[in-house]
């Protein structure tokens, strides 16, 4: 494991250890639906996390998961895996994350039919070949040492005809390379969408709420370092989305049914 990946793991271990509140279920930047469009119907309990949930809804927008075995790689604090299990009704939903403390939080706080959590590396997943019908990866791959190795692992654990649903951010030069790797990898690239403006809009709309949660949940000593990570207005991350220096895409890929 590289120094880079160890640093990301250490960050998430610290956050899971220091902030164990079950209300903090999502860590993605969110997705604001286009003007005039309707978001998904949510329960009152899920409504505070609407923008984060809408990113998952966008990624899975045309997927019928009933009866499927679904894997979320990089499940974080488990909100996305829990939403998938409760809303899309797959047969099983498995959340995988490198952080042991995050997985402990998930096992403690996230409950849904067929939902389970496993600690493990996205580049060496602890699953047999052909274990899943759908693999989901939301705002996590930028932490990995090798996108090629990750895509090879996704291909390995998917069943023939299985689907990979993906969303993440990169700098503009890195995004060009990411698109190339998605297109030339072992999975067939069906579509990509530039959702940068939808993600930036979500950060803008949700700024006040996210700042209040930082004040309430994150120890003050971490506030300055947390602001760019959280993408607050005025942060370098938010400015990079505004300028186009940072981009965000979603993608749908499939494994050949004849493999």
TrEMBL record:
The keyword Metal-binding does not apply. Pfam families: Methyltransf_11. One of its GO terms (biological process) is methylation. GO terms for molecular function: methyltransferase activity. Residues 71-165 form the Methyltransferase type domain. It comes from the Bacteria. Keywords: Methyltransferase, Transferase. PANTHER family: GERANYL DIPHOSPHATE 2-C-METHYLTRANSFERASE (PTHR44068:SF11), ZGC:194242 (PTHR44068). This is Phthiotriol/phenolphthiotriol dimycocerosates methyltransferase. It comes from Agrococcus citreus.
């Amino acid at each position: 494991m590289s120094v880079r990946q160890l640093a990301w793991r250490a960050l998430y271990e610290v956050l899971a250890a220091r902030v164990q509140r079950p209300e903090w279920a999502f860590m993605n930047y969110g997705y604001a639906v286009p003007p005039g469009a309707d978001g998904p119907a949510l329960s009152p309990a899920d409504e505070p996390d609407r923008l984060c949930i809408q990113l998952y809804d966008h990624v899975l927008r045309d997927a019928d998961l009933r009866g499927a075995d679904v894997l979320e790689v990089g499940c974080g604090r488990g909100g996305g895996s829990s939403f998938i299990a409760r809303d899309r009704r797959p047969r099983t939903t498995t959340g995988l994350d490198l952080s042991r403390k995050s997985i402990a939080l998930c096992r403690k706080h996230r409950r849904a039919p067929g939902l389970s959590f496993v600690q493990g590396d996205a580049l060496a997943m602890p699953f047999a070949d052909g274990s899943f019908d759908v693999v989901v990866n939301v705002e996590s791959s930028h932490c990995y040492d090798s996108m090629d190795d990750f895509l090879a692992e996704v291909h390995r654990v998917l069943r023939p005809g299985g689907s990979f649903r993906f969303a993440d951010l990169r700098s503009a030069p890195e995004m060009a390379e990411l698109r190339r790797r998605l297109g030339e990898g072992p999975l067939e690239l069906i579509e990509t969408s530039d959702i940068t403006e939808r993600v930036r809009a979500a950060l803008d709309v949700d700024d006040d709420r996210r700042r209040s949660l930082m004040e309430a949940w994150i120890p003050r000593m971490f506030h300055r370092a947390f602001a760019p990570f959280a993408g607050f207005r005025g942060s370098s991350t938010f400015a990079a989305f505004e300028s186009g220096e940072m981009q965000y895409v979603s993608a749908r890929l499939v494994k050949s049914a004849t493999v």
